[in-house]
Amino acid sequence: MNSENTSESAGCCRRQVLRGAAAVGVAGAGVAVLAACGGSSSASTQSGPVTLGPTSDVPVGGGKVYRAQQVVVTQPSAGSFKAFSAVCTHAGCVVDGVTNGVITCPCHGSQFKSTDGSVAQGPAQTALPSIPVAVQNGKLVATLS
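^ thats the sequence. predicted structure below, dont judge the formating
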Protein backbone atom coordinates (compact mmCIF):
# COMPACT_ATOMS: atom_id res chain seq x y z
CA MET A 1 0.00 0.00 0.00
CA ASN A 2 1.48 3.39 -0.91
CA SER A 3 1.23 6.62 1.09
CA GLU A 4 -1.29 8.08 -1.40
CA ASN A 5 -3.78 5.25 -0.69
CA THR A 6 -3.23 5.56 3.06
CA SER A 7 -4.03 9.29 3.12
CA GLU A 8 -7.02 8.73 0.81
CA SER A 9 -8.49 6.04 3.07
CA ALA A 10 -7.79 8.17 6.18
CA GLY A 11 -9.71 11.07 4.56
CA CYS A 12 -12.52 8.70 3.75
CA CYS A 13 -12.72 7.45 7.34
CA ARG A 14 -12.65 10.97 8.77
CA ARG A 15 -15.55 11.97 6.51
CA GLN A 16 -17.54 8.92 7.60
CA VAL A 17 -16.90 9.67 11.27
CA LEU A 18 -17.89 13.33 10.80
CA ARG A 19 -21.06 12.34 8.91
CA GLY A 20 -21.93 9.89 11.67
CA ALA A 21 -21.33 12.51 14.36
CA ALA A 22 -23.52 15.01 12.48
CA ALA A 23 -26.31 12.45 12.17
CA VAL A 24 -26.14 11.69 15.89
CA GLY A 25 -26.20 15.42 16.66
CA VAL A 26 -29.31 15.97 14.52
CA ALA A 27 -31.02 12.93 16.04
CA GLY A 28 -30.12 14.12 19.54
CA ALA A 29 -31.55 17.57 18.82
CA GLY A 30 -34.76 15.96 17.57
CA VAL A 31 -35.10 13.96 20.77
CA ALA A 32 -34.51 17.11 22.84
CA VAL A 33 -37.23 18.97 20.92
CA LEU A 34 -39.68 16.09 21.32
CA ALA A 35 -38.94 15.80 25.02
CA ALA A 36 -39.50 19.53 25.50
CA CYS A 37 -42.87 19.40 23.75
CA GLY A 38 -43.90 16.09 25.22
CA GLY A 39 -43.25 17.16 28.76
CA SER A 40 -42.73 13.53 29.66
CA SER A 41 -39.05 13.77 30.55
CA SER A 42 -40.07 14.53 34.13
CA ALA A 43 -43.06 12.21 34.12
CA SER A 44 -44.33 11.19 37.50
CA THR A 45 -43.67 7.56 38.34
CA GLN A 46 -45.71 7.74 41.53
CA SER A 47 -48.81 5.64 41.99
CA GLY A 48 -51.36 5.26 44.74
CA PRO A 49 -52.46 8.03 47.10
CA VAL A 50 -50.31 11.17 46.86
CA THR A 51 -50.75 14.25 49.03
CA LEU A 52 -50.66 17.32 46.78
CA GLY A 53 -51.05 20.17 49.25
CA PRO A 54 -53.57 22.17 51.26
CA THR A 55 -57.03 22.82 49.83
CA SER A 56 -56.36 26.55 50.30
CA ASP A 57 -53.86 26.38 47.40
CA VAL A 58 -56.75 25.89 44.95
CA PRO A 59 -58.92 28.99 44.55
CA VAL A 60 -62.69 28.72 44.06
CA GLY A 61 -63.36 29.02 40.33
CA GLY A 62 -59.69 28.37 39.57
CA GLY A 63 -57.13 25.66 39.93
CA LYS A 64 -53.54 24.67 40.53
CA VAL A 65 -51.11 22.59 38.50
CA TYR A 66 -48.97 20.16 40.49
CA ARG A 67 -46.19 19.70 37.94
CA ALA A 68 -44.19 17.06 39.82
CA GLN A 69 -47.22 14.78 40.01
CA GLN A 70 -48.60 15.91 36.62
CA VAL A 71 -52.00 16.65 38.14
CA VAL A 72 -54.21 19.72 37.83
CA VAL A 73 -56.81 20.30 40.56
CA THR A 74 -59.74 22.67 40.12
CA GLN A 75 -62.40 23.95 42.50
CA PRO A 76 -65.40 24.83 40.29
CA SER A 77 -67.51 25.67 43.36
CA ALA A 78 -66.63 26.05 47.03
CA GLY A 79 -65.58 22.72 48.52
CA SER A 80 -65.93 20.78 45.25
CA PHE A 81 -62.54 19.61 43.95
CA LYS A 82 -61.85 17.95 40.59
CA ALA A 83 -58.51 16.48 39.49
CA PHE A 84 -57.28 15.65 36.01
CA SER A 85 -54.10 14.58 34.35
CA ALA A 86 -52.05 17.71 33.63
CA VAL A 87 -50.71 16.10 30.43
CA CYS A 88 -52.44 17.55 27.37
CA THR A 89 -54.10 14.90 25.23
CA HIS A 90 -52.98 16.62 22.03
CA ALA A 91 -49.18 16.46 22.16
CA GLY A 92 -48.29 15.52 25.72
CA CYS A 93 -47.32 18.96 27.02
CA VAL A 94 -48.04 19.77 30.65
CA VAL A 95 -50.84 22.32 31.09
CA ASP A 96 -49.76 25.54 32.74
CA GLY A 97 -52.73 27.06 34.51
CA VAL A 98 -56.43 27.53 35.15
CA THR A 99 -58.12 30.84 34.37
CA ASN A 100 -61.81 31.71 33.99
CA GLY A 101 -62.89 28.08 34.25
CA VAL A 102 -60.44 26.89 31.58
CA ILE A 103 -57.32 24.73 31.90
CA THR A 104 -54.80 25.88 29.28
CA CYS A 105 -51.98 24.14 27.45
CA PRO A 106 -49.10 26.43 26.46
CA CYS A 107 -47.87 24.37 23.50
CA HIS A 108 -50.66 24.55 20.92
CA GLY A 109 -53.47 26.42 22.67
CA SER A 110 -55.73 23.54 23.69
CA GLN A 111 -58.21 24.43 26.42
CA PHE A 112 -60.17 22.17 28.74
CA LYS A 113 -63.18 22.88 30.96
CA SER A 114 -62.21 23.00 34.63
CA THR A 115 -65.47 21.32 35.66
CA ASP A 116 -65.01 18.04 33.80
CA GLY A 117 -61.76 18.17 31.77
CA SER A 118 -63.62 18.13 28.44
CA VAL A 119 -62.19 19.94 25.42
CA ALA A 120 -63.26 23.59 25.25
CA GLN A 121 -60.96 24.43 22.32
CA GLY A 122 -58.68 22.29 20.15
CA PRO A 123 -56.45 21.11 18.70
CA ALA A 124 -56.92 18.49 21.45
CA GLN A 125 -59.75 16.08 20.61
CA THR A 126 -59.89 14.14 23.89
CA ALA A 127 -60.72 15.26 27.44
CA LEU A 128 -58.11 15.27 30.18
CA PRO A 129 -58.40 11.99 32.11
CA SER A 130 -60.04 12.38 35.50
CA ILE A 131 -58.06 11.47 38.63
CA PRO A 132 -59.72 10.57 41.94
CA VAL A 133 -59.11 13.29 44.55
CA ALA A 134 -60.21 13.53 48.17
CA VAL A 135 -59.79 15.97 51.03
CA GLN A 136 -58.09 14.52 54.10
CA ASN A 137 -57.29 16.76 57.07
CA GLY A 138 -57.48 19.87 54.89
CA LYS A 139 -55.12 18.44 52.25
CA LEU A 140 -55.79 17.23 48.70
CA VAL A 141 -54.95 13.58 48.15
CA ALA A 142 -54.97 12.26 44.58
CA THR A 143 -54.95 8.57 43.72
CA LEU A 144 -52.52 8.11 40.84
CA SER A 145 -52.37 4.96 38.77
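The chain has a mean pLDDT of 78.
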